Amino acid sequence: MNGLLNVHKPRGITSHDVVNAVRRLAGMRRVGHAGTLDPAAEGVLVLLLGAATRLSQYVMGAEKTYRAVLKLGETTTTYDAEGEITARRPPAVTREAIAAALADFRGPLMQVPPMYSAIKQRGKKLYELARQGREVPRPPRPVTIYHLELLAWNEPHLTLEVTCSAGTYIRSLAHDLGQVLGCGAHLASLIRTASGSFLLSEAHPLEELRHLAERGQLERALLPPQAALYALPAVTLTPQQARAVRHGQTVTLAVPPADALQALDAEGRLLAVLLHRAGHTWRPKTVLAT
Q1: Catalytically annotated residues
Q2: Is the fold of 3-62+197-224 the same as that of 64-195?
Q3: Which ranges of the chain does DSSP label H, i.e. alpha helix?
Q4: Which CATH superfamily does the domain covering 232-287 fall into?
Q5: Are strands 157-164 and 64-72 parallel, antiparallel or unpaired?
Q6: Best exposed site among 139, 158, 168, 188 by fewest CB in 10 Å?
């Protein structure tokens, strides 16, 4: 099997648990995911199978959309409902104050990741240090909030829709918003509704995948490798060009300017990702078919 699965990850299990489940269903080890979801979160988790695992960077780098519920008036160690409460303050804020505060978080910003995260610092994951009771300075990282909308305010719960760049921590967004509002906040629940072109409305629950696998029909849920490269233009190669690309050789293509291309064979199958070198010369970066 070679392609992508859009899986609806449920709450209560890790992203790696989903990978292991699909490995068993597909009967193969070569399965990976593109973009971790915390155990308490649910929603779109894109899995890559077979040679398509080479394309993970293109899925991981895509923007993400979430529906987040924040609880105002409480801060926690993990910035979500899984952590210990560190402070309580009455959330005496209005809808107008919330809307004004959200304006500060739209667009490019520098975000400090939470201590309970898998980011490594001096070879140690931050959450490992946090579990030892240690807190260390975390350098802020550039992220972009493309869309941030207030969907509902039912004190003390606040519901937001967020579209953001890869690497954005919604837990940090919740914590930081609570600080701006002066009452504190943490992430109460989170659903990823989209990862690039992969939508929650099209995601397959694990139980559905199990039923398909039992009938030997798991491939019905599998998307072609090209689904990882929806943002890249495509070009169909001649048989001679296809042979050259399979052997890692550059090819000459008269195509419109672009940084990268999908290279397809005559049957429309993805052969490789090509990077522009100079003029009309392109070199293979990621080769799927040999």
Answers
A1: 38
A2: yes
A3: 15-26, 56-60, 95-103, 126-131, 170-181, 206-214, 239-246
A4: PUA domain (2.30.130.10)
A5: antiparallel
A6: 139
